[in-house]
Amino acid sequence: MKKIAEQLYAAEQNRKCVKRFTAAQPDFSLAQGYQVQRELLALHQAQGAKLVGRKMGMTSRPKMQQMGIHSPIHGFLTSRMQVPEGGFFSLGRGIHPKVEPEIAFLLDRELAGRPSLPEVFRAVGGVMAALEIIDSRYENFEFQLPDVVADNCSSSGFVLGPLHAKGQISDLANLGMVLEQNGKPMQFGSSAAILGNPLRSLTDLVHLLDAEGTSLPAGAVVLAGGATAAIPLAVGQWIRVQVQELGSVEFRVQA
Ligand code: OOG
Ligand code: MG
């Protein structure tokens, strides 16, 4: 599994995609995909990246339909992936990046074991509008479930909007979201698209991590999953998501 992690790490560094591993090894399993992902995280950490949180993926119907994968998956977020709010993302850093609108959580307290949704809500400190930049290391963004998990769920970057106390939000499960490109609305969605409630996604993540013997520490950032299909990035774009009650978050794409 170490070899596969090294190939994916090199693909990202050199911006050269690889063929999905399930093509040559049809028995490459989901468990092996997560094993590769853990080795990939270790490679990033060995280069000084810090684990700052996690992301859920394939938690909404538009994402499942766009990518043809129908079960929720999770990946890691590192300090090096964060793009400052209102800042720039360099297209040259990626292979074929896309962007999608998300809801993010910041944890006040550790979440471990198998908490219920209300218990999870109590551990949440704040909620944010967010954008995720995804960039598969596979040719043509083509993969099966174990491949995408190995590739850290196509994760590449993330941008966080202003932090809101959870008590300020009337209904987390019903926030309208608009993804804009150069001021033009491109995708419309709702936080309801994310497993009916983004808190459900966070709860499922805690359970999935528990099954792997790990947890979410206080201070972790969690992306709950794209609420709409992703759109491709190009140089010169100004990308913004507006989320009801959570405000907006934006970045620009440079060469
Ligand atoms: C996989 C990443 C999925 C999400 O929010 O659903 C994801 C992909 O679409 O390539 O980040
Ligand atoms: Mg995503």
Care to describe what's here?
The structure is a single chain. This protein is α+β, with helices and mostly antiparallel strands and 255 residues long. The protein has a single domain, classed as Fumarylacetoacetate hydrolase, domain 2 (Alpha-Beta Complex), CATH 3.90.850. 27% of the residues lie in helices and 30% in strands. The chain has seven helices and 13 strands. It has helices spanning 2-14, 21-24, 30-46, 61-67, 117-123, 145-150, 198-211; strands at 51-57, 73-78, 88-90, 98-107, 124-134, 155-160, 164-165, 176-181, 184-190, 221-223, 231-232, 238-243, 247-254. Strands 1, 2, 4, 5, 6, 7, 10 and 11 form an eight-stranded mixed beta sheet that branches. A five-stranded mixed beta sheet has the order 3-13-12-8-9, with no helix packed on it. α1 (2-14) packs across α3 (30-46). The radius of gyration is 17 Å and the shape is globular. The mean pLDDT is 98. The structure holds 2-oxoadipic acid and magnesium ion. Magnesium ion is lined by residues 55, 57, 100, 102, 132, 134, 223, 225-226.
